[in-house]
């Protein structure tokens, strides 16, 4: 009774402040329990419902540049009304790709903790390899509703091979990992993507960064060479996140209809 009387006697503003503080304490306690018990908001079994799309997480490429993905994220928000987040990679974005997969895993965990029904992931360039690592090593096979990769060097790129051979000291960890035949890529090649996970891989035949361009081809995915559906398209590697035809492919892939290769060039 005394506590009830005390609560009624304080001002509404003070009640609001105390309530907010209490909620914050509860949030911290829940996070602490999750950390100590190993519980996770993100599912560890099953697969997301394809009819319930959630937020879209976009993973930058080597170096962590976000400019092009910011444009794509805004277009996704405008077209779908869904929330988007362009991730900030660890360090300068040239470190261990396994560490970057951990960054993605943390973002996914936060999304599910906020009540997301699922997550979709868009990985650009090396960010596509990060997405594949997350699916294979971090439980993403149970958490991703759909994955889209753009110009991803799934089998490595000649530029990384050249950097590793000519000046190893100037080729950071991610650079060495992206060299064709690296131990990381050899291991990934033995880990097929789940048949239950819709995955779209898009690349441009005019790519001079990921060489050969069809290094982006991934067994089990819907593979689309941009110029095969949009003849004459001049997009290069750096144009992929902002090219209108690519954006249209991404938007279609993030829908709820079965993921299939387009019959022709789409328009966003």
UniProtKB/TrEMBL annotation:
Domain of life, per lineage: Bacteria
Keywords: Hydrolase
Family matches, as InterPro entries: AB_hydrolase_fold, PGAP1-ab_dom-like, Stereospecific_Lipase
Molecular function terms, GO-annotated: hydrolase activity, acting on ester bonds
GPI inositol-deacylase PGAP1-like alpha/beta domain ranges (all copies): 95-159
PANTHER family linked to this entry: LIPASE B
Name of the featured protein: Triacylglycerol esterase/lipase EstA, alpha/beta hydrolase fold
Species whose genome carries this gene: Amycolatopsis australiensis
């Amino acid at each position: 009774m005394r506590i009830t009387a005390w609560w009624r006697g304080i001002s509404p503003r003070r009640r609001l402040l105390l309530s907010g503080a209490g909620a914050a304490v509860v949030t911290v306690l829940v996070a602490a329990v999750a950390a100590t018990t190993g519980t996770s908001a993100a599912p560890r079994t099953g697969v997301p419902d394809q009819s319930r799309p959630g937020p879209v997480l976009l993973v930058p490429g080597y170096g962590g540049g976000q400019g092009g993905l910011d444009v794509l994220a805004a277009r996704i928000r405008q077209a779908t009304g869904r929330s988007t987040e362009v991730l900030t990679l660890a360090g300068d974005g040239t470190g261990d790709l396994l560490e970057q997969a951990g960054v993605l895993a943390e973002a996914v965990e936060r999304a599910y903790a906020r009540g997301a029904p699922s997550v979709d992931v868009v990985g650009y360039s090396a960010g596509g390899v990060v997405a594949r690592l997350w699916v294979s090593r971090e439980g993403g096979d149970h958490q991703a509703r759909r994955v889209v990769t753009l110009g991803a060097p799934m089998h490595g790129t000649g530029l990384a091979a050249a950097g590793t051979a000519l000046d190893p000291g100037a080729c950071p960890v991610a650079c060495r990992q992206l060299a064709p035949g690296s131990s990381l890529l050899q291991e990934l090649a033995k880990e097929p993507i789940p048949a239950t996970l819709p995955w779209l891989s898009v690349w441009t035949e005019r790519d001079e960064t990921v060489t050969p361009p069809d290094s982006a081809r991934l067994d089990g995915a819907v593979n689309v060479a941009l110029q095969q559906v949009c003849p004459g398209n001049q997009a290069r590697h750096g144009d992929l996140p902002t090219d209108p035809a690519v954006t249209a492919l991404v938007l279609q892939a993030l829908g709820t209809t079965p993921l299939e290769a387009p019959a022709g060039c789409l328009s966003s």
